[in-house]
Design a protein that fits this description.
Number of helices: 6
Largest sheet: 3 strands, antiparallel
Number of domains: 1
CATH topology: Arc Repressor Mutant, subunit A
InterPro entries: ArsR-like_HTH, HTH_ArsR_DNA-bd_dom, WH-like_DNA-bd_sf, WH_DNA-bd_sf
Strand order of the largest sheet: 1-3-2
CATH superfamily: Winged helix-like DNA-binding domain superfamily/Winged helix DNA-binding domain
Pfam families: HTH_5
CATH class: Mainly Alpha
Order of helices and strands: HHEHHEEHH
Structural class: mainly alpha
Organism: Halorubrum halodurans
Shape: globular
CATH architecture: Orthogonal Bundle
Radius of gyration: 12 Å
GO molecular function: DNA-binding transcription factor activity
Strand content: 5-15%
Protein name: Transcriptional regulator
Distance between the termini: 23 Å
Length: about 90
């Protein structure tokens, strides 16, 4: 899981936005529309990044597709120290 986190959050172009999404979801679960509005990102961009995070087991959804609420997976929570380390490093850049 740690290698996947490093890759998804730092090894690809969208890593910075994925970190922003994770920070927001750590505060409270939200749907894609709320995330787009709160982070001032395009809705399609948010959906793309959520899909990547879901494919890698970092976030999960609850509810129907349009109104689905996203939150970190239990597995991501187990590795939250790694996520925080990545977040700190991305703050330095």
């Amino acid at each position: 899981m740690e290698a996947a986190l490093w890759y998804v959050l730092t090894g690809t172009r969208g890593g910075a936005n994925r970190v922003r999404l994770l920070r927001a979801l750590d505060e409270r679960p939200r749907n894609a529309n709320q995330l787009a509005e709160d982070l001032d990102l395009d809705y399609k961009t948010v959906r793309h990044h959520l899909d990547v995070l879901m494919e890698n087991g970092v976030v999960e959804s609850s509810g129907d597709d349009y109104g689905a609420v996203y939150l970190p997976t239990p597995r991501a929570r187990q590795h939250w120290e790694t996520i925080e380390t990545i977040m700190e490093q991305t703050d330095d850049t």
